[in-house]
From TrEMBL:
InterPro entries: MCM (IPR031327), MCM_dom (IPR001208), MCM_lid (IPR041562), MCM_OB (IPR033762), NA-bd_OB-fold (IPR012340), P-loop_NTPase (IPR027417). Pfam families: MCM, MCM_lid, MCM_OB. This is ATP-binding protein. The keyword ATP-binding applies. The lineage of its organism: Archaea, Methanobacteriati, Methanobacteriota, Stenosarchaea group, Halobacteria.
Amino acid sequence: MSSAIPSPDRVARWLRRECGDRLATLAQQYPRESRTLELDWHELARWNDRFADELLSNPDDCLDVVEEAVRVVDLPVDLSMARATVRIENLPESSTFTVGEFSPTDRVGTLVALEGQVTQRTEVKPKVVEGAFECRRCGTTTYLPQPPYGPIRTPDECQGCEQSGNFQLLDGESRWTDYQKIRLQQPPEEAKGDTEHIDVHWEDDITGGGDLESGGRVTVVGTLATVWTGEVVFDTTVHGNQYVPEGEAFEDFQADRFDRVVEDVSTSSDPLGRLCASFAPNFEAAGPRDRQVIEAIVLQMLGGWARTGPDGRRHRGDSHIYLLGDPGVGKSVLLNAAFEVAPRGAMTDGTGASEAGLTAAIVQNDFSDAQWSIAAGTLVRANGGLAVVDELDKGDTSDLDALHTALESQTVHVDKAGKNATLPAETALLAAGNPTGGHFDPTSDFADQVDFQSPLLSRFDLILRMQAREDYDLILQVAESMTRARRAAAKYEHGETLTEAEQGAIAGDLTTEELSAYIARAKEVEPRVRSEAVTEEVAQWFAETKTSLPERYQSAMGDGEYDGPPLPITARKQVALERLAEASARARLDDTVRMEDIERVKPLIERSLADIGIAPKDASAFGSRTEPVDPGEIGL
């Protein structure tokens, strides 16, 4: 054994001195409530840095010594903690990696910390640690330790009659432990191309933890090991020792580095305007309608905040947006930009969703050795962030049915083969799709050009129509802007200095990282309505909007032959307005929802209603607050 490893007695004295309270708590809870002693690597390093370094390179021997120390430590009670397990957390940065971003060759056999997202998990099952095998010929029992995973090992021959084969496993005399396997994957917002993953094996009382649920984000500490595949190239796996759940999505982002930027934007005359000007600079906005779409997406990323009332009912804070548009109008550009900016998120499209789909699934594959396991879909993987789905209209019917419930409850329930689970999906959904037939038909109603049923559409706070432009001046404006951006990008690629105008053609006021940092900081604010005047304005707006359907719908309703828009105005629109108003307040880091926030977001709701066939009384709702739009531009 290495000279850097102290004796168990010496480690026991240190534990008694520095970890006495934790040992006393463990002694009280052992063995029914807990068998685990948690140690911070850095506190071990402060006591004995050589031993702490040895723990990283030789974890098995070092952990054996520490666990032996726990067994022999002098306690005030007469108790032997023979089955106690020591779990290590908070490894140094030199041993902490994101899944797939380290050299396995350099780390095989060492203790590592891997940051990632759980995408699949098995149920907790009994695993035999030491098998008791009885010879059917002579009755002799042979005890044989088992490998960490894989096929069970049986004795080569009986220790009594020295004959081979013909053994039976004695369950009662064998030694068992709980076992679970998870698949840890690169978080989707950090993945470049195909996502890397690694499987982690857990044993004993750490299995079955709620934070090991599919979709959960954790830092796993364990020993990196190889798995022989029968070829010269080996797979890798991790023998898990400890895991620590990550914080909230926007807490993970290190926004403190951008304090100056946050202060500068929040104190400017129009913080939301600056955020919008920095979002998707390569999107060629053709007029106020396109700028409204950008504003809606930025408000979605800022979000409202969730709260739970005294009756236990949860009120979601996330807004869901559906962009329905002709091909080539820039929907995908906006979706990609949102995914890049969101500090946490997942992105897919309706045609290429994983086997877990948009929500989650119970699947049977090689991961779980043909057993059933729970796989996280897009909404679950984006939990706490933004889910981005392109071509939603091409999604599987069962996927869309599951989406209907998930968007409102923000949970996903899966049930199959006698297995069931409920997973968190607290995410905002930004989706895009094309109208039926590929392009909008100006002679057809909105309802005839959307494949979805009303219940799913009603879950979206905003449904925004994006149509190809036919106006010569607008087309010319977009074409010139695209040419300038391409020329500026060429100069940048060759290291040439850009003019201020050229810089503005390819980049916004804020960088993507600065925009992400500002959103992260804004998400910490929980704005509330504190004025009775604001409350009355919201209520009055909703009442007037609901009772002012276009005349052609009013008469049909009176005759009992209503054939109006697919989404009658319900109370969901009022709550959608409130969520967006909270996001508007967050844009300036204000904890109060003010009248200006209500006035700013009303046009977005009214634009959305008009886009699905419910025209507002005032066509100026389609522009920004200062830019009224000609009714002809929007088809009224």
